[in-house]
Amino acid sequence: MIKNLLNGELLVVQDGDQFYIADNFVTNYSLDGNTYTGVTVNFSSSKVSNAPNSGPYAQKYFNRTFIQGVDCFHLDNDNIGIKKYVDSLWDDYGKLFGILIANQLRVGQVRAKISIPVTSKIDDNERIKLQQQYATTLYEKMMNDPIVFIPADDKAKSSYDEISSSKSATLQNQITDFWSLKKVFIGEVAGLLGIPPALVLGETANNSENLDLAIESAVIPLGNKLSEGFASILIKKSGYSVGNTLQMTGFKTINILDRADAIDKVGSSGVVKVNEVREAANLPPTEDGDRFIMTKNYEEKGKNSEDT
Questions:
Q1: How would you class 10 by CB atoms within 10 Å of its CB: exposed for 0-12, middle for 13-18, buried for 19 or more?
Q2: Complete DSSP assignment for the chain
Q3: I want to staple 190 with a disulfide (CB 3.0 to 4.6 A). Which of 45, 120, 175, 195 is the partner?
Q4: Strands 72-76 and 9-15, sheet pairing
Q5: Is this prediction's pTM over 0.70?
């Protein structure tokens, strides 16, 4: 669902007790509520595990109309300019990558002057034509071949003189620029999605703070969007008006052994219920968990403990 939403839009349809992500559909816009027809779901082993009739070309076509908020929900990616921005950003960085690659290809390239005695005479027009052909061929050779021969001045004898590249040492250092440029591009895109670049690049050994920030600014908002969509189908307006809600949890795995002291303190204080503590620790609720437990000797100011 997240992949479809980031790519532009998401349509989830309900068929009985099953939910499907639509791969193809037709949107019928209306002031009374949009409807969706021609809904097709593609089943494959890479997308749906244990899907019915799963295979590379298995499909399910719904010959019915789905109504927004009744038996389906449709979400649009609010940031409609992100794809255009990323594409334009990649065009700019792609040019820089091309320059670095071209420079790196010339590192260590062997260039040599070669002289071959020529006795024939050519006119000016023919000489200009040959010079143009020579310039084109030389450019292609220098960009692609590891060894390039360059004709030298006319000499009486054949000769070969190898030329060392004086800029090889400087160009070799540019190999580190590939990673630097890649980091800048990844940082730009990660920032657009609200993800700390250090979390993607793995620059620090302890990324817990970056992970918390990514969950808070990127993951939870997307999860809330999906929760609202499912709530519109499962709870509807009548259920929401009487206090029924749908919440998505489990965004981060918590090691309860590492948080044992905190769980004990908040659970035994009598401030929150047992199931509320279990929810914060990403544990499922229990049947008798909607109750308060207080094991500490708290007492109200000005009263004896026997009275409280």
A1: buried
A2: -HHHHHHTEEEEEEETTEEEE-SEEEEE--TT--EEEEEEEEE-TTTSTT-TT-STTEEEEE-S-EEBTTTEEEEE-S-TTHHHHHHHHHHHHHHHHHHHHHHHHTTT-EEEEEE--------HHHHHHHHHHHHHHHHHHHHH-SEEEEE-S--SS-EEEEE--TTHHHHHTTHHHHHHHHHHHHHHHHHHTT--HHHHHT-SS--HHHHHHHIIIIIHHHHHHHHHHHHHHHTHHHHHHTT-------SS---TTTTHHHHHHHHSEEEEEHHHHHHHTT----TT-SSEEE-S----TTS-TTT-
A3: 195
A4: antiparallel
A5: no
d(CA 71, CA 63): 14
Rounded Cα gap, residues 147 and 277, in angstroms: 70
For residue 75, give Cα distances in angstroms to 4, 115, 160, 305: 10, 70, 69, 56
Q: Let me know: does 270 contact 298? Beta carbons within 8 Å.
A: yes
Q: How confident is the model over 42-93, as pLDDT tens digits?
A: 876 555 555 555 555 678 889 999 999 889 999 987 666 677 777 777 777 7
φ/ψ of residue 78, rounded to 5: -65, -35
Copy the structure tokens of residue 299: 């007492």
The pLDDT confidence band at residue 106, using thresholds 50, 70 and 90, is low
